[in-house]
């Protein structure tokens, strides 16, 4: 019950971790099934239509229900601590964001049991996703599930914007913010601008599907290319929403374990902002073959190539952070160091794709599959692993097992390159993506087999991580404040796990890498910025949970045209909003004599 | 400084070797790495240029990363604190400027090529005009000037520019012949896309649909056959010649009621693939390969492939619009035989 009503950002972070991790396992299982189907030509392990469902659900699940929430897990666990805040700006909203994401994700996955999952690809291009060619309910689940989950993400993004702008400890100017906080800040801004585009697109598609509107129906004056634009105006920034926080994690981890400050901090900040900005300018590079004409293709080619410049700055800054450092290879750092060359490989294929005439060959082939997995798995997932190993003690008060961690790293890392490196060649040799089978004799057999073996290794790596979690959770909570001993930022000044109120006294920040600065001056704690006093805390609430259930119910009503159910669901949601608005709740206070540096129970 | 040039000198053959390796990759009639016509060649040129630049970047990063990882690993018991450098403007400018230079090297030919490949030959009287229409899950090729319609296999002369107008009859597909030219989407509605290519070497090239279009997207293959001009002219003539129905009245009747309601043979019309000359095509349904020496599951003689298709089209291509037709084994045999014998000389 405590977990259903919590508004504590650290617990919400753990909820995100559990839910995101769960969906990651589902998405991973789908990936393995996809790879089993493709291990040899003309295989009939799954049928063509099941394959398309697996493919669609794998992409959708990994992006929206695994990667995003896992990042939100890290954001929630770390950002308020890094800026010396006692909580996020809107704790109630934070909980609401989580529950809407969760029920949106559950709704999507219910489709498996309701007679067919969506099968038009995670991009759901019309007309394939229109009622004319996708008759079942599958795509309806996609439209409504994503809509609800998207609301959650948008709420979360706005919350972090407000938190980072308003809740920084005294002395923490923008240019003293840790890199991870910076990337979360930019990511939140991207969420604020990108997700409304998705929401609008999904509403339009929902109207087409449920109420016979004609936004995308060419027979009645609609336009299918419109959907592609809307989708990618959201979809391209989305990949930067995903990768920027991973950049942040890598910056923190590499700098800590090199015992050195981040090289070129201000150029890092500048590069992050620039990447965020350019991320919005290049969506049409997903549409070079749509026939937008040479002027558009040339412009979007060049704009896309430009992103390589700030990204390059980041790569070299990381390398030079390690240069001259004293590098310690913990599991977290192995993931971070493994990230750098891997991500570079994904980045350079991105530049190759940006050259439009060459992209006429790459587009929609396995080359693209290889590219985006290099950036998403090789970038984002390695980043998330690094972050989890790094902050696990701060989240749970226990250190993950290093030996198992290294086994996990090597299995996952080798498996990853085995799976995706050969796919570049498959694509260039003529293998289109999203195919459920391929004919024999085309020269695709061996590489597909290698790819499948790699995927299984990645699966084993993930299992090693799960075992690690189980073993670790049986050990006592004895992690130190600063378990890596080289902690540089504020989260390492408070107990592991962090107490409910984070900071008994708000710290005074006197420079970049605030904690490191104090340590160098021979202190082992921050100077407080305020006297010890009662701490105001928000009250827990069940309303976010119920509101999300309301939306969940309304979603079903919409899909099955049961308007009473829709209305009932919405009444629940709006009823909760009303209750929340009229009921005064001032929270409670923790008095100074109750302060016990024990930490949240996890 | 000397030292660095040495490294470059050593890298060059490595890169050249890589490019060579690349160009030996895959089947000549299918791989974008083994271009067989000027358009694909131009695209391959851009690929080689970008791969070289990118391999250079990757190698530089790998070398620095390896060096750093080995040189600066913490020795046991090391408690020293490294110098906390803030940054270095000179270095930062270097790694901003070098990528920009590399991008200019790639950007200029890219732009040239974007405009070059967008050239419109649809009004050119010397070009062969072909209207490509994609269907779930087959391809229709119409030669408007010649008044010919065919399916699954596009015959072209090897001495002319082929000018394509691509559209779709249903969902999005994408028209792609890797060894001849990159792909172009087929959009619904009035939105017609154009492209061109040439196939100077005679031969058969494999084409594919590259946009997820439903369950049988994977099987939406087609062939492009480049022949000399005289053969091409003979083919056009043969396509237009009348075709006799089977002599057997019973069989002709079965054929007319069951097949010709959708398909056309000879000068008939129909919305399904045109069957004129199907006996001399390389495949049935675009992906059952006709050969007397079957090695793979999707190969067989024309007769066998036709029988397999007629028994249950959905077994071959899931979700396709033909659907199973109620025919006795006897009828399937004789219809297949008739179709297999519908050969044209060219
Ligand atoms: C065990 C790890 C993974 C494996 C083996 C794997 C494998 C695959 C395969 C085989 C495809 C189908 C490619 C095609 O036919 O077009 C695919 C598609 C995709 N994957 Fe993964 N994947 C993995 C992890 C991930 C992760 C972590 C993400 C994102 C965070 C992701 C995102 C996607 C996306 C967006 C698609 C495209 C789906 C579509 O075409 O609609 N994958 N993956
Ligand atoms: Cu298709």
From TrEMBL, chain A:
UniProt keywords, alphabetically: Cell membrane, Copper, Electron transport, Heme, Iron, Membrane, Metal-binding, Respiratory chain, Translocase, Transmembrane, Transmembrane helix, Transport
Subcellular location field: Cell membrane; Membrane
Catalytic reaction annotation: 4 Fe(II)-[cytochrome c] + O2 + 8 H(+)(in) = 4 Fe(III)-[cytochrome c] + 2 H2O + 4 H(+)(out)
Residues spanning the membrane: 12-34, 54-79, 91-114, 141-167, 179-207, 230-250, 262-283, 295-320, 332-354, 366-392, 404-429, 449-471, 541-558, 564-582
Limits of the Cytochrome oxidase subunit I profile domain: 1-510
CDD domains xref list: Ubiquinol_Oxidase_I
Pfam families the UniProt entry points to: COX1 (PF00115)
EC number: 7.1.1.9
Membrane topology, record value: Multi-pass membrane protein
EC top class named in words: translocase
Signal peptide stretch: none
Pathway per the UniProt entry: Energy metabolism; oxidative phosphorylation
Cited function: Cytochrome c oxidase is the component of the respiratory chain that catalyzes the reduction of oxygen to water. Subunits 1-3 form the functional core of the enzyme complex. CO I is the catalytic subunit of the enzyme. Electrons originating in cytochrome c are transferred via the copper A center of subunit 2 and heme A of subunit 1 to the bimetallic center formed by heme A3 and copper B.
Family: Belongs to the heme-copper respiratory oxidase family.
Protein name, entry field: Cytochrome c oxidase subunit 1
The species this protein was found in: Paenibacillus spongiae
Automatic annotation (TrEMBL), chain B:
Enzyme Commission identifier(s): 7.1.1.9
Essential cofactor(s): Cu cation
Subcellular location: Cell membrane; Membrane
Cofactor note: Binds a copper A center.
Lineage: superkingdom: Bacteria
Residue intervals passing through the bilayer: 51-70, 91-111
Topology of the protein relative to the lipid bilayer: Multi-pass membrane protein
Stretches assigned to the Cytochrome oxidase subunit II copper A binding domain: 125-238
PROSITE patterns, A to Z: COX2, COX2_CUA, COX2_TM, CYTC, PROKAR_LIPOPROTEIN
Catalytic activity: 4 Fe(II)-[cytochrome c] + O2 + 8 H(+)(in) = 4 Fe(III)-[cytochrome c] + 2 H2O + 4 H(+)(out)
Domain Cytochrome oxidase subunit II transmembrane region profile positions: 24-121
Cytochrome c domain location: 247-343
Keyword hit for Transmembrane: yes
Keywords in alphabetical order: Copper, Electron transport, Heme, Iron, Membrane, Metal-binding, Respiratory chain, Translocase, Transmembrane, Transmembrane helix, Transport
Enzyme class: translocase
Summary of the function given for this chain in its UniProt record: Subunits I and II form the functional core of the enzyme complex. Electrons originating in cytochrome c are transferred via heme a and Cu(A) to the binuclear center formed by heme a3 and Cu(B).
Family according to the record: Belongs to the cytochrome c oxidase subunit 2 family.
Protein name (record): Cytochrome c oxidase subunit 2
Species: Paenibacillus spongiae
